[in-house]
């Protein structure tokens, strides 16, 4: 028997239970993984609270890394002992062992640790599609990233800087401002005491930015739109403060023919070839040192309730890994 986190009702961190589970053998096209590190993401909170509905009882967790411990019939290109990582649905990564489709995993290069891989499969691939595909950032661009000291935020700051962009980022404290600045954020704005829309306009000499990457949602929606230049793009990739209000298209017309998109990672990695190419680019920037995985918190997987409480309380920075 292995251990895993399960929950049978939505609610606070206390609904998650550390229980015995039967893992079983992999079927055709499947592998079993002995997991060594699991990533923590805000989407896990959305599932736990019921904002994103799941069939219950169920598991949580979208990403992990570990070692292949068994292989089902028909699987090629993998063998027992290979190091792999994944971001996958349905949730269930909060576990010591797991069976899943071989098509959902990516081999991990020797130069990338299990903890690094587990911390970037969701957040790092999100940063990749935001910067390279949703709005392809180019040298000379000035961009705004909300929650710049968070897991995706720190990756976006570093990667955008490596692409030659000027990075403006919002943060909640001076401590987080210092962290963001150390990771490539040229202009951290402490939103608790500064009007970030006004500061963005000052920094850009009134022009605004061509793109805002916003994972905060309800609390920053209107102000984020006010930061955009005409024909700018508002990228809503999360809603930590709550869902966006009903969208009125005149909001985008009146501010200069703005674009709006609500991307999801699983659309971008829907084709195996895209998944592989995106992961390869992500691992390349990690190995090159242009982007570093900032793992600033580690918890035992059994203590995931505390990890969720700290995440929701905005007491974390960068990435968090759970250790089975």
From TrEMBL:
Q: Which organism is it from?
A: Paraburkholderia ribeironis
Cross-referenced SUPFAM superfamilies, in alphabetical order?
A: GroES-like, NAD(P)-binding Rossmann-fold domains
Q: Which PROSITE patterns match?
A: QOR_ZETA_CRYSTAL
Documented EC number(s): 1.6.5.5
How is this protein annotated for GO cellular component? cytosol
**Which positions make up the signal peptide?**
none
Keywords (alphabetical) are: NADP, Oxidoreductase
From the Swiss-Prot or TrEMBL record, give the protein name: Quinone oxidoreductase
Q: GO molecular-function annotation terms? A: mRNA 3'-UTR AU-rich region binding; NADPH binding; quinone reductase (NADPH) activity; zinc ion binding
Record-annotated Enoyl reductase (ER) domain positions: 11-322
Question: Where does the source fall among the domains of life?
Answer: Bacteria
């Amino acid at each position: 028997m292995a251990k895993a986190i399960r929950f049978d009702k939505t609610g606070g961190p206390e609904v998650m239970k550390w229980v015995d589970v039967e893992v079983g053998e992999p079927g055709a096209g499947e592998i079993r993984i002995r997991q060594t590190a699991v990533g923590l993401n805000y989407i896990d909170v959305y599932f736990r609270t019921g904002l994103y509905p799941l069939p219950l009882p169920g598991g949580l967790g979208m990403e992990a890394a570990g070692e292949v411990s068994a292989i089902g019939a028909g699987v090629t290109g993998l063998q027992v002992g290979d190091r792999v990582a994944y971001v996958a649905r349905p949730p269930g990564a909060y576990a010591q062992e797991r069976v899943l489709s071989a098509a959902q995993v990516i081999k991990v290069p020797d130069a990338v640790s299990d903890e690094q891989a587990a911390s970037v499969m969701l957040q790092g691939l999100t940063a990749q599609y935001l910067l390279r595909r949703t709005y392809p950032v180019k040298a000379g661009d000035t961009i705004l990233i909300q929650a710049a000291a968070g897991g995706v935020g720190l990756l976006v700051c570093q990667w955008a800087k490596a692409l030659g962009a000027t990075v403006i980022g919002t943060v909640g404290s001076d401590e987080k401002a210092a962290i963001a600045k150390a990771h490539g954020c040229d202009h951290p704005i402490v939103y608790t005491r500064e009007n970030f829309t006004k500061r963005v306009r000052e920094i850009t000499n009134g022009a605004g930015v061509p793109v805002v990457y916003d994972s905060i949602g309800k609390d920053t929606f209107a102000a984020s739109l006010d930061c955009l230049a005409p024909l700018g793009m508002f990228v809503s990739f999360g809603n930590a403060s709550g869902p966006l209000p009903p969208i009125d298209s005149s909001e985008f017309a009146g501010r200069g023919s703005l674009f709006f998109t609500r991307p999801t990672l699983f659309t971008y990695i829907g084709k195996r070839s895209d998944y592989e190419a995106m992961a390869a680019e992500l691992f390349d920037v990690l190995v090159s040192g242009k982007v570093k995985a900032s793992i600033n918190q580690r918890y035992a997987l059994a203590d995931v309730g505390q990890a969720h409480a700290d995440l929701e309380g905005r007491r974390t920075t960068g990435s968090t890994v759970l250790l089975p």
